[in-house]
Each structure stands twice: as structure tokens, then as C-alpha cells.
Write a structure and sequence with these properties.
With about 300 residues, this protein is α/β, with parallel strands linked by helices. Helices cover about 40% and strands about 20% of the residues. The protein contains ten helices and twelve strands. The strands form four sheets. The chain has a five-stranded mixed β-sheet, sandwiched between helices. Helix 1 crosses helix 2 (about 20-25). The longest helix has 25 residues, at about 60-85.
Length: about 300
């Protein structure tokens, strides 16, 4: 069965008439009938019921046409995408957990794009989505932070998808809270100090601690506020007594080297929650593009600057 045959079937189903479908497709009715009969013989099914009242789909025909429409739509999308390739010479995308250094690196990469035509993307999402984006070719790179306790579990998952994690640096954990917070003046904080305050954490599609990008799983704390994006987390920390724990948060005093001192303080955490590994994932047997390598240069630079500053 060819793509053209699928288009014939869809046209007959839409027009409910062989003659009208043939006119719309600029083919003879006999050509249309012959093509559809060949498909029916090849698949061993009847696609259409023919009667004096017109043409209707059989049960098998209804099942077939759902898939046929998807295939034709995807084919047309591919044709449009690659016919216009000359006008869009550059394509690059990266998926990342909610990590400010990923965005800062993308901004620097974006500033260096030397093309009049491009199609680039950065997608902030949860850990599971980052992995699937890279595994399914939606993004060339995925940026992750993984705690030491969950490293082996995540590596097994990555291996099952044919992905590799490459570490850039180890990072420390900090407590992020607003500069007017009752605990903001302390030089360091313990989990006991934070017990009475709400912990703002990123929601995950999978309720598993190894999929969280944060070093502390929310189930361990009494007061939890779940958010799905970094802007909401930042707004809550700026305007309430919520706190967050991790290696980086935009607009904190960890941003001094970015000349962007904000309303959020980064205070060392007394407890060791284990080493945090910052790095990226990619497809094991795929050579990285020049655009990916360029982005990684800025990513490494930003992470190492952050680590050395704090």
C-alpha cells in the first residue's frame, strides 16, 4: 500500500463518492477504483460498503483510515519541513530540567548564532520528559543534575534508551529564600531550621524520588508546595516564606557574577544531601552537531563559574 493509495482512500471517505473523489484528485474513476481494490486484496479486507445510498466505511475501513490519516499527515509534514530546508539551515534544540545555568548558556549560544535563518529551542521540563525528548530525537541534548544516591538508577534508565550521561562538574546544595525571610541572616541552615516553613518543589509526572531534579524529595518534609515552572517557584520564594534547595536558582546572590543581584539569598545547607552531578545526556551513537558543541562550551563555562564563585 502506497502513500498515494492512502490519499485515494481518504478522499473517497471524505467525499463519500468515487466520482467526486476522482474529480478532486484529477484521476479517472477507474484508476481510483483499481487502486482501492488492490489495497483491499492486499490487506484482505473490505474498506467501503457500496450501496444505492452511497459509500460508507466498513468497520475495518474506519480502523484503517485512522492510521492512514496519521501517516499522510506526517508525510506531508516531512515534505514541507525538508522542502524548506534551504531557507532554515540551522536547527538545534536542548531539553533541560528547571536549571538557570542551562538557560544562561542558551542565551549566550543564541547571541552567537551567525545565521539569518534558524529554528532553535530550549525546553524546560521534568526529568522524565528530558530523557524522552533526547531518546525520541526531539532534542539533541538534555541537561540534568543527578544526585549521587540516584545515579545508578538513572544510568540504567538512560542505557535502556541508548543514552549517555556526561558529567561536567559536581555541585553543592544551597537553601534559597527571600532576603526578608526570618532565616535570611543566618550563615548556614539545617533542615531542622527549615521545618516550619513551606518547601516549594517541582512537580514530577512520576512519583519516584530518583526522577526529581532536587536533592531533597518532598515526601520527607511536612509542608510542600508543588509548581511546574521556574517562574512560579521564584515568585513564591520572593514573596512568601517558602524555600527551595538545590545548586542554583536565578536572581539569587549566587548570580553576582552575572551582575544580576536579586531578592533571593543562597545560604549553605548544613546537612550533606549527597553529591549533585551536573551534566548532559545525548544519544550514544550520534555525533554531536557543531551547534550542540557550541552550546556545551557555554554550559561548561557557566557551571564552572558558578561552582568556583560559591
Amino acid at each position: 500500500m502506497t502513500i498515494q493509495n492512502m490519499k485515494y482512500i481518504i478522499a473517497v471517505a471524505d467525499y463519500k463518492s468515487f466520482s467526486q473523489a476522482a474529480k478532486a484528485l484529477f484521476v479517472s474513476q477507474s484508476t481510483l477504483s483499481t487502486a482501492i481494490r488492490e489495497v483491499e486484496n492486499d490487506l484482505g479486507i473490505h474498506i467501503f460498503n457500496r450501496s444505492n445510498r452511497g459509500i460508507t466505511l466498513t468497520y475495518d475501513g474506519e480502523d484503517l483510515i485512522r492510521y492512514a490519516r496519521e501517516i499522510v499527515e506526517q508525510t506531508e509534514y516531512l515534505e514541507q519541513r525538508y522542502h524548506s530546508r534551504k531557507s532554515i539551515p540551522m536547527r538545534f534544540s536542548v531539553s533541560t530540567q528547571h536549571l538557570p545555568f542551562s538557560v544562561r548558556a542558551f542565551i549566550k549560544f543564541f547571541d552567537e548564532i551567525g545565521s539569518d535563518n534558524y529554528d532553535v529551542a530550549i525546553r524546560e521540563c521534568n526529568t522524565d520528559s528530558v530523557i524522552h525528548d533526547v531518546a525520541n530525537h526531539r532534542s539533541e541534548l538534555g541537561v540534568l543534575i543527578i544526585t549521587e544516591a540516584h545515579m545508578r538508577t538513572i544510568e540504567k534508565i538512560l542505557t535502556s534508551y541508548g543514552l549517555v550521561f556526561q558529567e561536567i562538574s559536581e555541585m553543592k546544595n544551597y537553601v534559597f529564600l527571600c532576603t526578608s525571610h526570618p532565616l535570611a541572616s543566618k550563615d548556614s541552615l539545617s533542615l531542622e531550621d527549615l521545618e516550619l516553613f513551606p518547601f516549594v518543589t517541582y512537580d514530577q509526572e512520576l512519583e519516584s524520588s530518583h526522577f526529581t531534579e532536587e536533592p531533597l524529595f518532598y515526601n520527607l518534609l511536612r509542608k510542600n508546595v508543588h509548581v511546574s515552572d521556574r517562574a512560579t517557584k521564584l515568585a513564591l520564594i520572593r514573596n512568601t516564606n517558602c524555600f527551595s534547595i538545590g545548586p542554583d536558582l536565578a536572581n539569587s546572590n549566587a548570580d553576582k557574577f552575572h551582575k544580576n543581584l536579586g531578592e533571593v539569598a543562597a545560604i549553605p545547607l548544613k546537612e550533606s544531601l549527597g553529591i549533585v552531578h551536573a551534566g548532559f545526556i545525548y544519544q550514544k551513537h550520534r555525533e554531536l552537531s557543531p551547534y550542540a558543541l557550541s552550546y556545551l562550551t557555554y554550559l561548561r563555562e557557566d557551571i564552572r563559574t558558578l561552582v568556583n564563585f560559591l
